[in-house]
Amino acid sequence: MPSERQRAGGAGEELEPVVADAVARAGFELEELVVQQAGRKQLVKVVVDGEGADGRGISLDETAEVSRAVSAALDARDDVLAGAYTLEVTSPGLDRPLTKPRHWRRARLRRVAVKQADVNFLARVGDAGDDGVELLVDGRLRHVPYTEIEHAVIEVEFKEPPAAEIAKLTHEEEGSR
C-alpha cells in the first residue's frame, strides 16, 4: 500500500518532525503534511487522524486542540518556518482511501468499494488484521491481503445495513440476534 504521509519538499521536510511531534503529543497521528506558497504566506496543511475521545476519529474540538498545539510548535521553531503562514488542520474526509490497517479497523461493518488488479467490487468490512481484511462479498466471507488491494474507499449508505450481513461479519448466528 502507498505511504499515507505526503512529504512536501524544502521546508516541509524540516517541518514534518516538528508537526508530527506536536500532533503525537495531542494524541493523534500525522496523516499528511503539505507546505505550499500561497501569495506572500505559506500554507501549512496538516491532516491528522486517530481515535478521538468518542472512538470514532478526531472531533471538531480535538481538531482545534491539535491546531493550537501545532501552531505553538511552529511559532517556537521559526528557524524552520520563517515568516507569515496560514495553518489548516483537518481530518481525512470520508472519501480518504483505506490504506492502513487502522483505516480498515475503523471501517468495520461499513460498505466499501474495492479495486484489485483485475476486478472492482463492493464489500462489507469485517475484521482487519495487520496483513489483510475480512470482506463480505456477495454473501461470502473472504480474506483479502492488503497487498492485493489497489484502492478502496468507504461507500456512503443512507440506510441500515442488512442484519444478515452484520451477523456474518460479527460471526453471530442469524437466529441468535
TrEMBL record:
Residues covered by the Ribosome maturation factor RimP N-terminal domain: 19-95
UniProt key word Cytoplasm: yes
Alphabetized Pfam families for the sequence: RimP_N
Coiled coil: none
TM region(s), chain numbering: none
Calcium keyword on record: no
Highest taxon of the lineage: Bacteria
InterPro entries (UniProt xref): Ribosome_maturation_RimP, RimP_N, RimP_N_sf
Subcellular location: Cytoplasm
Record keywords, A-Z: Cytoplasm, Ribosome biogenesis
Task of the protein: Required for maturation of 30S ribosomal subunits.
HAMAP family with a match to the protein in the record: RimP
Family statement: Belongs to the RimP family.
Protein name: Ribosome maturation factor RimP
Organism of derivation: Actinophytocola glycyrrhizae
